[in-house]
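Supplementary Text 2. Reproducibility record for the structural model of the 182-residue chain.

All settings were left at their defaults, and a single model was retained for analysis rather than an ensemble. We include the record here because the model underlies the residue-level annotations in Supplementary Table 4.
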Amino acid sequence: MATDFESWRDVRLSNFEWLVPWEPKQNMKNPESTDYRKYFESRCANRDREMQLGTAWSFGIFVSDQLAGEINISNITRGAFQSGHVGYWIDENCAGNGYTPEALVLIMKFAFEEVLLHRLQVSIVPRNRSSRRVVEKLDLRCEGLAERYLEINGVWEDHLRYAITFEEWEMRKNEMTSDWLG
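Retained model, structure tokens:
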């Protein structure tokens, strides 16, 4: 929400070095959103519009009522594909405590049971051990390496693609929700 600007700005700025190596470079035509409230409000409006259209869903990750990260489903494709891509980030001070795997289980539950997707994919730069640990904790299936898959911090980076389908979710949802959502 646009009213979360200060909280979002503070956590993003305090985690700049932790997050920048894993994210696309900011569009140079736009001011850095961490410094410019109007840009952040525009970003929020775009996310709201995507949710209304059903092409993306974005959520905050909160720890003790404080914004600690974000998780989203983007690039939702309908038709024969029924798929989406998941992305996430977490405050470095909160990493390793299970908050991101918990958020990912919630996103999978939402995607498969509410949005009615058939497949979710998480793409991770191979050397991003923290992000890989999230999908490994959940034992998501690794589909292999996609070479020069996404532009990350100005470089076309290879990504490992992890995925889960509705059928896999149906077989594992009781275990996952019990282990992570207890």
